[in-house]
Amino acid sequence: MKRYKRVLAVLAGTTMIVSSMTACGSGGDTKSTGSNSEYPELNLSMAVNGTDTQIDTQVGQKLAELVSEKSGGNITIDVFPNDTLAGGNATKGIEYVCAGSTDLAAYATSTLSAIDPLLNVATMPWIFDSYEEAAEVIATTGGEYYADELDDKGLTYLGAFHNGFRQLTNSKHAVTKPDDLKGLKIRIPGSEIYMTFWQAVGASPTAMSWSEVFTAIQQGTIDGQENGVPITDSAKMYEVQKYLTLWNYCYDADLVIANSKVWDSLDEKTQDLLKECIAEACEWGNDKIVEDEKTLVEKFKDNGMQVDELTDEQLEPFKELIKEPMNEIKAKYGKDACEAFGIDTEGVKFSN
Hints:
Largest sheet: 9 strands, mixed
Helix content: 40-55%
Structural class: alpha/beta
Radius of gyration: 20 Å
Shape: globular
Order of helices and strands: EHEHEHHEEHEHEHEHHEHH
């Protein structure tokens, strides 16, 4: 595999993001407004998978505000939550960006893995100890890796922001040790990493559309779910789940991407403006996730949830259970992918 050939210069120096933003592929109307105009008139479309209140939508809207303000209103971005451009189907939404039917998008790496499983590498359990560490890695070698992988799909990597550390809620009992997970039916996204993890720790993982989860919990079809704190809140899980385990077991980032042909069609000055606004919007999103999580955990407690925040000592038995299964997955992803995110490869037997 080629080694990070499209390393975006903007990666250096941003908190977590980089690169830039994009032009008129699907409906980006470009026309000059005359010699007095610093920027051409552009209207860009941006797809996000989250609801109106989720972080990807909020970052998209913040980006749209910044771009409009700094371009004097010449450049506008229309943000479409819930993948409405693709009828609510995230995989189709990604395909639309690849084809240039949509100009820009922000998707979680776990969602983008539908077009490239290697983009899921940084969702391996407990590879980051903090948001600060995740941001630092993605601002350098991690972002370079994303840029390289996305380039093969006709996509330009623009930057990244926290989608959040994933936690666990359930209706049965507190989870503080592996035995507590035995037999628990937990909804997970359809990913080999998640399936392997939950089987290794003794739970019964079930892949299920997120739209079905609340009702499935009410009906007892599943016992719990794992997700970031903001999504857990927006889905009102505190109404049907009594127990929350805070253990930061998995990190996911939202990547800002553009159709490469759209991006390459922009003049340098417009690209520079968009890069600047993306970096600012993503940093704003990172700060918001961190602050919101503190407030939301207190909200969960006020709504009657029992919250257990696991210590490093409590996490060790879980980490021991997943060590061998995860080493097998690391071997599949390869040495380059693991090194890009600082993933421990002790004991991993790579084929190359």
